[in-house]
Amino acid sequence: MASGGGAEAVRSPLLERKKAAAAEDGWLNKVIDVEEAKDQILFALPMILTNVSFYVIPLVSVMYAGHLGEIQLAGSNLANSWAAVSGFDLMVGLSGALETLCGQGFGAKLYRMLGVYLQASCIITIIFTIIISVLWWYSDIVLTLLHQDPQMAKAAGLYLKYLIPGLLAYGFLQNILRFLQTQCIVLPLGVVESCFHELEARFAFGGYGVVSSLSKISVLEYWAFEILVLLAGLMPNSEITTSVVAMCTRVSNELGAGNPNQAKGAMTVTLKLTVLLALLVVLALSLGDNLWAGSFSDSPVIIDAFDSMTPLLVASISCDFVQGIFSGVARGCGWQHLAVFINLGTFYFIGMPIAGLLGFKFKLHAKGLWIGLILRSSGPDDRSFAAHKVDKMDKNRAVPIPRFISQDC
């Protein structure tokens, strides 16, 4: 599938490049595979712009809501968290199969099957959108039954009603994103996104719920983080996913082409790049905590609370970024059915009980909730699993392509 000269220049070295006969022996090459790092950066850059552009819209919506009042700030955060738990995260999960199927199918040059996978995923998206929309329409009642503050629940319910039109578009968009990124077609995403935001900005002040509905896409948010928001009422959260996108595509492409050693090299390079990215995020949080808090609210109480949470946020990012990389490896290799049980056990049988115990029993409140996730993120979980499986790639020479990809088409 052609996507222009620029995309071809990125795609060709991803799957079929040949290593130079004599690689340079400079100090930088000893630290990191420069060619592989260059490939991943070229692939990830348009996705960085796309993800940031989409994430900025709900972020700005919450900022505007925060300056309307504390109830509006808490209600918009509660609505975004409930939307993630009950809708957007489900759409991300439903589209996640395309990362494995399309990624390995493209690597194996079974191009005709890619459209079949995309169509099937879109049909599933429509079915789930109808079900979720009904739930969102009555979310104020549901949130009240979950013992949320009635005023917050009412504000969140109104917000969610305006988000309903964006749910179907979000599901389709997730499918298309994975369909394109597994083929290394990422430049058009950045171009289209830039044009859309130029038009969308004219309508941004019509209502903070409508803004999010028009172009709602955010980083891959896990239910455990959003459940903490439901428990705490207000808990800002941000995760690193750009490297995960690049990692998932690189691994699935190389495995589909039968290059397990290339996949191992891709994972190593991504880990090093993500360490650098995590350090930059930690530095920004550490130096500008009052600036970030002031963007969301003028309330001194909220600003002080955010300031006290900053060390925990820094620790959380430091512990959690590696887990995201290995999750990308698992999706690229088609190991979701195994990794999901590991994450389920560590998040909900270890992390969440500890968070609840510290937050409610020991009266640490929001700090206790976050400490629970830090303890979970510092554990072995899917990192040990993925490292063990990747270590066996060269012994198996290739991860078997699923039978529904291997069929003759």
Automatic annotation (TrEMBL):
Kindly indicate whether the keyword Transmembrane helix belongs to this entry.
yes
Looking at the UniProt entry, the stretches that span the membrane are 41-62, 82-102, 114-138, 158-177, 269-288, 308-326, 338-360
Which keywords, in A-to-Z order, does the entry hold?
A: Membrane, Transmembrane, Transmembrane helix
Q: Which InterPro entries match?
A: MATE_euk (IPR045069), MATE_fam (IPR002528)
Q: Is the keyword Transmembrane in the record? A: yes
Q: Where in the cell is it found?
A: Membrane
Q: Name one GO molecular function term.
A: xenobiotic transmembrane transporter activity
State the annotated membrane topology for this chain: Multi-pass membrane protein
Set out the biological process GO terms recorded for this chain's protein.
xenobiotic detoxification by transmembrane export across the plasma membrane
A single Gene Ontology CC annotation of this entry is: membrane
List the PANTHER family hit by this protein, alphabetically: MULTIDRUG RESISTANCE PROTEIN
Q: Which family does it belong to?
A: Belongs to the multi antimicrobial extrusion (MATE) (TC 2.A.66.1) family.
Q: What is this protein called?
A: Protein DETOXIFICATION 18
Q: Which organism is it from?
A: Sesamum alatum
